[in-house]
């Protein structure tokens, strides 16, 4: 199984040029030790990044690390009351308290962003994408960062992903991942993980982007069962249309008889049928 592509943003790293591998790796190791001690945006991190970039301006790892520095620095979290809302961005409440009338009030940990600092993080990625337009890792960082920033309505993230897909459809770029030629399935896996990010928002716009992207990818890659599974899950969860969902899952199983998602969700549908008959 291929390694998961969309990693926690703080853990993204790239291979350095072979001629400077040892020294560049030493910078990365020093950064990792410093981050463990002071946090991803703590004292000394930016100074280390400046030295690293001065010595190795073409090392993609330092630019990924600088993005992460600004991205982490831009964030703060608060506990926010959201009434009786049961989930927020796919997560259950962090805390439930009673109000003055004895009603449950759900609190969620929500992330807020400093606009100027977040913009610096995106600028780092945009500069690298101008230099390396076929580097999927930078595209994935930007899409996942925008999705985190936009929360319930990931419009900019979806626009970035759709543009990436249309570029694949029209130009078929020679994608790289961490500076190395990407495997044939890497692009499809990357898009599939972005789809999951949209689905996890649990909001109408997130679900619709999940559907739109999955439909487009299914047309481009009809032999990939992942996007059929996605369309089945959209029907199952969003539309609550078990019959239509089952059609997609069965199509996926024709492509891959061992498809876990399709098999599991078809079992759920069958159990629902059995329970409905007993009533």
Can you offer a commentary on this structure?
The chain is mainly α and 279 residues long. The chain has a domain at 76-113. Helix content is 61%, strand content 9%. The chain is built from eleven helices and five strands, in the order αααβββαααββααααα. The strands form two sheets. It has a three-stranded antiparallel sheet with strand order 1-3-2. A hairpin with a 5-residue loop joins strand 2 and strand 3 (104-113). The longest helix has 19 residues, at 260-278. Mean pLDDT is 92; it is low at 15-20.
DSSP summary: helix tally: 11
The end-to-end distance, rounded to whole angstroms, is 43 Å
Instruction: Note poorly predicted spans.
Output: 15-20
- Average pLDDT figure: 92
What's the shape?
globular
Helix content: 55-70%
What percent of residues are in strands? 5-15%
Number of strands: 5
Radius of gyration: 22 Å
């Amino acid at each position: 199984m291929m390694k998961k592509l969309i990693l926690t943003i703080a853990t993204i790293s790239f291979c350095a040029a072979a001629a400077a591998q040892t020294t560049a790796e030493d910078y990365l190791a020093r950064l990792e030790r410093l981050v463990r001690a002071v946090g991803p945006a703590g004292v000394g991190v930016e100074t280390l990044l400046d030295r690293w970039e001065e010595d190795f301006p073409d090392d993609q790892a330092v630019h990924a690390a600088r993005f992460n520095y600004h991205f982490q620095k831009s964030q703060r979290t608060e506990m926010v009351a959201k009434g009786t809302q049961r989930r927020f961005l796919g997560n259950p409440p962090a805390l439930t308290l009673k109000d003055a009338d004895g009603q449950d009030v759900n609190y969620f940990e929500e992330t807020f962003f400093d606009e100027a600092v977040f913009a610096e993080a995106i600028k780092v990625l945009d500069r690298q994408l101008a230099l390396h337009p076929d580097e999927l890792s930078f595209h994935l960082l930007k899409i996942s960062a925008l999705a985190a920033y936009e929360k319930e309505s990931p419009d900019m993230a979806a626009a970035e992903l759709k543009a990436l897909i249309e570029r694949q459809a029209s130009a078929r770029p020679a994608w790289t991942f961490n500076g190395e030629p990407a495997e044939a399935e890497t692009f499809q896996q990357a898009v599939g993980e972005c789809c999951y990010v949209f689905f996890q928002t649990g909001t109408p716009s997130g679900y619709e982007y999940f559907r739109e992207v999955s439909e487009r990818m299914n047309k481009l890659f009809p032999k990939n069962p992942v996007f059929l599974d996605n369309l089945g899950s959209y029907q199952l969860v969003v539309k609550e249309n078990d019959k239509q969902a089952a059609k997609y899952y069965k199509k996926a199983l024709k492509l891959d008889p061992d498809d876990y998602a399709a098999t599991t969700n078809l079992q759920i549908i069958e159990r629902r049928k059995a329970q409905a008959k007993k009533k």
